[in-house]
Each structure stands twice: as structure tokens, then as C-alpha cells.
Amino acid sequence: MQFKKKHVRRMSMDITPLIDVVFLLLIFLLLSTTFISSPGIHINLPSAAIKQKSDKQKSLEISITKDDKLYIFGKIIKKNNLIQELSNQKHQLNSQTLIIRADGKVEHQLVVFVMDSAKQAGIKKLSIATQPKKSIRTKKSL
Question: Is residue 104 within 8 Å of 44, Cβ to Cβ?
Fold first, then answer.
């Protein structure tokens, strides 16, 4: 006489949803960290009411911090080498536009120095970066 063998069910935990969640978190973290434009240079841009036009072509960008340090694409530049560096970057990018991102507390003399250096380096268009002005809403009286 033949007896039927009982099938023993193996109990196991499915970890596929756990792996999916971990991969989604990993992708989220990787994508969210790539949107930081210049993490080491902190600049408080002055505000302006007029919106800036954005050029689609790659422009040369210089940042000026409140402690009077100059950065071109995150690389610190000395004032003595500014004209040469601007000229080199202008030829590398094939750009005639310089965007100046100066902190609101920077002395006007330093911004003028950068503008003059850009002119000597052969850059024809200058643009000053600002942040949008916060509008103040007032209550209308009845």
C-alpha cells in the first residue's frame, strides 16, 4: 500500500518589497544631492523687482563672497590673476557673457574691479545676478 507524502510547506518571508523600498530611498538620495549648485560658496544675492532673462548658452560665472573672495566655477581666484583667468575661461567656454554673483554686503569697488577686469579680458556682456524681490502685501481698507 502506498501512502501519500504530505507536502510540508516552507514558510519564508518575501523581502522583495523591502529591497524595492531601499532602492527607491537610494535613488531619491542620489537625485536630491545632485541639485546643489555651489555648496561651498554662500552668497546672499541682492534683491530686484525685475526678473532676469536666462541665457540658454553656457555663460562664465564669477562669485564674490562677503569676505571679498573671488570664485570662478567654484575655484578660488586671486585678484592678480583675474584678467588671465577670465580670458582663459572665456576661450574655453566660447562665451562673451559674464554673470557676477556678488553678495549684497560686498563693497561696490570690488564689483567695479571685476567688471573692469572682464572688459580687459575681452568679455562684452555683463550680467549681475539677483534674487526676486519679496512683495509686501498690504490690507485694503474698507
Answer: yes
Domain of 122?
47-132
Give the CATH number, domain containing residue 57: 3.30.420.270
Query: Is the pTM here over 0.70, yes or no?
Result: no
Asked if residue 36 belongs to a domain, the reply is: no
Average pLDDT over residues 24-37: 77
Rounded to the nearest 5°, which phi and psi values hold at 23? -65, -40
Q: Which cell numbers in the block locate residue 38? A: 555651489
CA distance 49 to 52: 9
- Distance in angstroms (rounded) separating the CA atoms of residues 99 and 110: 15
Asked whether 105 and 82 are in contact (CB, 8 A), the reply is: no
Provide mean pLDDT across the span 76-93: 88
As for how many domains the chain has, the answer is: 1
- What is the C-alpha separation between 89 and 72, in angstroms, rounded? 9
